[in-house]
dTDP-4-dehydrorhamnose 3,5-epimerase (Streptomyces vastus), 183 residues
Amino acid sequence: MKATEVPEIAGAYLFEPTPYADERGFFCRTFDADVVRSVGIDPNAFVQDSLSRSVQGVLRGLHLRSGAGEAKLVRCSYGSIFDVVVDLRPDSPTYLGRAFFELSGETQTTLYIPAGCAHGFQALTKTADTSYRIDRPHDPAEDVTIAFDDPELAIPWPLPATSMSKRDQEAPSLAEVLKHREK
C-alpha cells in the first residue's frame, strides 16, 4: 500500500493498495496502520465505521461538521463514485481548494479527508457501496451542508442528480455557510 498526497487539499491523502489477483479474483489490504501512521495520521483515532449504498445518479453532500470537524477515510468498496473534497479550513494553505476523484471497488483506493473539509459524492454505477471510517462519533447537531450545485464551487458532477436527501436539496450556498461560520 502506498500513500500519495493530494496537492489540492493540504493534509489529504490517497491510500492505494497493492492487489494480488489470480483466477479467483483479488485480495488487497484496505487499511494499514503503519502506512497511515507514516503520513502523520493516528490510526487509532477512528471510532466509527459506516457504509452507504447508493444507486446510479444519487448525490450525497456536500457535508462537513461544525466544531472540531471530522476526519474521514472514504472508500468505494463496490461500484464507483465521483468523490469531491473542498477545503474549508481558513488557515489552510489550500483554503477553498477542490479535488475530484473516481473511487471504485476495482481499485479499493481510500481517500483521507482532514477535519474541516466538505465532502460529497455521486454514484456512477447501478450500485455503489461507500465505506467511511470516522474519527468522532456522529452528532447530528453539528451537521453542515453546502449546496452541491453552488456556482462558486462549480463542481463538474458527471451525471444528473437523480436523487438526494431533502437536507441536500435545501442546502445553503457556500457563501451563506462561510458567513455563518464567521459569527
The mean pLDDT is 95. The first helix runs from residue 33 to 38. The helical segments are 33-38, 166-169, 174-182. The CA atoms of residues 164 and 182 lie 28 Å apart.
